Amino acid sequence: xxxxxxxxxxxxxxxxxxxxxxxxxxxxxxxxxxxxxxxxxxxxxxxxxxxxxxxxxxxxxxxxxxxxxxxxxxxxxxxxxxxxxxxxxxxxxxxxxxxxxxxxxxxxxxxxxxxxxxxxxxxxxxxxxxxxxxxxxxxxxxxxxxxxxxxxxxxxxxxxxxxxxxxxxxxxxxxxxxxxxxxxxxxxxxxxxxxxxxxxxxxxxxxxxxxxxxxxxxxxxxxxxxxxxxxxxxxxxxxxxxxxxxxxxxxxxxxxxxxxxxxxxxxxxxxxxxxxxxxxxxxxxxxxxxxxxxxxxxxxxxxxxxxxxxxxxxxxxxxxxxxxxxxxxxxxxxxxxxxxxxxxxxxxxxxxxxxxxxxxxxxxxxxxxxxxxxxxxxxxxxxxxxxxxxxxxxxxxxxxxxxxxxxxxxxxxxxxxxxxxxxxxxxxxxxxxxxxxxxxxxxxxxxxxxxxxxxxxxxxxxxxxxxxxxxxxxxxxxxxxxxxxxxxxxxxxxxxxxxxxxxxxxxxxxxxxxxxxxxxxxxxxxxxxxxxxxxxxxxxxxxxxxxxxxxxxxxxxxxxxxxxxxxxxxxxxxxxxxxxxxxxxxxxxxxxxxxxxxxxx
Length: 601
Fold this sequence. Notes:
By secondary structure, this protein is of the alpha+beta class. The protein has five domains: 3-125, no CATH class; 141-164 and 179-234 and 362-476, Beta Barrel (Dna-directed Rna Polymerase Ii 140kd Polypeptide, Chain: B, Domain 6); 236-354, CATH 2.40.50.150; 486-532, DCoH-like (Alpha-Beta Complex); 537-588, DCoH-like, CATH 3.90.1800. Strand 5 (59-66) and strand 6 (69-70) form a beta hairpin. It is extended, with a radius of gyration of 35 Å.
């Protein structure tokens, strides 16, 4: 039985003993007789050997194991530290080798040296190497569930912070900047490597795990109003607007300036009040939706031969740039420049200060995300015996089922760091032990389990239970309620189906789905249900005799059937325009649908 060999997915020949071939191939590669960028693997299911040399493969370094012992020794490490040995030398000596995803399938990799057995082929350089950059920023990740860890990694990518130091000079599409970012108290070694201090994206706050007043049910959060006033979770939201003077055929051009009253579709004078003489808004102007930000007029759309002499054809039309639906803010920067074709280009950046409000999304680094349920006055919040009022109250019910033990450890770690005035190392697999943190907390005069006696802020009574309270690094996420809030009564509709258009930005409709329909049915709100489902209501006349669509003469107010004549019994039927469209499309295929009417009574 021969085994096929493939080089970069191309068949190159067959061999008799695949396992022996693979063993000698890897040995030769470790001796530098074959290039170290080549990877080979045996697929037992298809009985084939795959050799890969192509670019774009993800490869990672591992320590080679022989007879249950790693080839990397203490001597190697000392020489690396003294710079007598380079990384490349270790690869050339066959101590470390790079594997791709295919070759990794044929290996048994140990996480730590104490896990090694005779069967192991490789050892991780450090256990944290199994995590990516963002995931390794999560402290105490080895105490958390893997799916929550993935979510915590995603959460950090959505957090607001200082994404670039030159953000004031950039015209990015849709960005937020946290106003008071802080470096975390509990950090990992990756925070140092990635220079996280240069672009932090969260704040250290005091959190209490407590059900309080019912506003933090499920993943809801209660936030201290005093903390918000002191700057917690504040951010700036930036959005660019631009307009350019386009050139058209026949030498016509757009003009940026305050539109003339003769212009077609001229707005009221009130709409142009923020524009300077050049038709551009002045910096620091406070604008609301539908305010004109750049005044502009365009030449008429269609120029016929005879229309050159008519007055209507020569009137320009209004095409000013206005603030989008649901947006507002202050003009942050105005740039007048040229685009690639040499036409005048105006770029304006709008700035909006975002103060946390109910519905804004926050999260810890462990996938424990939630929205603000209530912003409570500081006087009504519980306080500790030493007078500490938490910045945020988090529901304890979101811990057991999700098993985010790392979330609980950070509360103690943050508390120790804040009281001891130092950073806590929470690097995955090699963090400061929880036992040591507890002992240090005890020496600082607090209970070693992180709980404290608390008092009800409204009644002043002592709470019967001890409350888990400490410090934590919290992130504000980009999902803010101000960017998502949307409502409409009636408005623009699609030309084809006559149903409301899609999208918040264009003032579209809200879809009422199957489950929403079930809620209305359960409430017995039949009239509301009917109202929701007639966004494209239309009336069609149907012949009762033959079931075909009848003709209705709106002037004579008389109906007739094209098949049965004038005397036919014709009834007006209410239906969705989308259904009427379907009937029309079927007719275009020479399928003539009939509607058999029955009496309602």
